[in-house]
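Margin note from the TA: students keep mixing up input and output lines. Inputs are the sequences; the output is the structure of the whole complex. Example:
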Amino acid sequence: MITEIAQIDIKPGMEAEFETGVKNAAPVFQRAKGCHGLELQRSIEKPGRYRLFVKWATVENHTVDFRGSADFAEWRKLVAQIAGAFAGERRNRRAIERELFHGEYTLASKNDDDLPLP
Amino acid sequence: MITEIAQIDIKPGMEAEFETGVKNAAPVFQRAKGCHGLELQRSIEKPGRYRLFVKWATVENHTVDFRGSADFAEWRKLVAQIAGAFAGERRNRRAIERELFHGEYTLASKNDDDLPLP
C-alpha cells in the first residue's frame, strides 16, 4: 500500500473553506482506481497546517491511472477553487509539498480494538 | 486520536542502521501509556526520507506521560545511538521535524476489507 502525503499550509481564516473543498473532492477519490481512501489531519501546534493522506494500492494507480483520468481534471478544478486559501508565495516556497511513501515497519497496537496505523 | 509525525532524513547508506534502531525502540512505545502503536514509512521519491507515525490517545499521553516517564530517557538513548545516521547540519536545518496532528476528516475506503486510514 502506498501513502501519498501532502503537507498544506492555509491562510489564517481560510480553514473552513479549505476543509469544505477537501470534502467536496471526496467522490473523485472514492471512485478512483486503486484508491483506498483519504484522510485530512490538522496540526495541533500550527493550526493552519494540514496533512492530506491518500492511500493507493500501487504507485501506478496514483501516477498513471489517476493522473491520466478525466477525474484528474475535476480534481485540479476543485484545487483551483480553494487555491485562494493556500498560504505562501509561489516564488518563495510551495504551499503544498507532496510525497509518496510506503510502509517499512509497523508496530501493532497493544489493544485489539484499536485502528491499525496508516 | 493524536498522530505524532516525525520527518527524518537519513544519510545515504545508513538506512538499515536507522531502521534497526526504530525496531529496537518498539518496546518503549508498546508499553507507553496511551500509545496505540507506531509505523515507519519510507519515501519512494527520496529514499533517505522517512516518516515515523506514533498514535497517542491524547496530547497529554505524549507530552506529559511519555516525556515524564523513565522510558523517555531510554528512548533518548536509543535515538542517540542512531543519531549518526541523521542527515543535515544541526545549525543549518533539523534532520528531524516533529509535529502533532489530529484527524479532521476521513473518507472511508470503498472496500470493507481495507485498512482504515491513519
